[in-house]
Amino acid sequence: MAKFQTEAGIEGMTGKLSxxxxxxxxxxxxxxxxxxxFGEGPKEVYELRDRDYKHNPRSQAEQVxxxxxxxVCREASRIAKDPTHPRYQEMVERHMAQLKxxxxxxxxxKQICQFGNFVRAVLCHE
Length: 126
Fold this sequence. Notes:
Elements: E1 2-3, E2 15-16, E3 23-31, E4 37-47, H1 60-81, H2 88-99, H3 115-125
Antiparallel strand pairs: 1-4, 2-3, 3-4
Helix pairs in contact: 1-3
């Protein structure tokens, strides 16, 4: 992914320049579970490329991984969006602890800033 510098006039520009453009500009923000922003990533530019599944279908191993990932994403979404979920508070505490420098046993030394991504990573490891 390319990183770039912008002029003052287009500092806050994100997204595509036109409907047909394949280049996308973004700047990620990292949020606490309650929505507060605590960090930003670099400005990035990337090109959209679609896989042609008709001519290049998933292999059996890719299909198994895809189904597993789909199930993990569904469950992570349920946990991250529902404060009454039985695992929500556990995940919030683990996420905050790893942000403060205490490595999570499931992830090792890797720090994951976004709460939803953290929940997906923990569930995938389990």
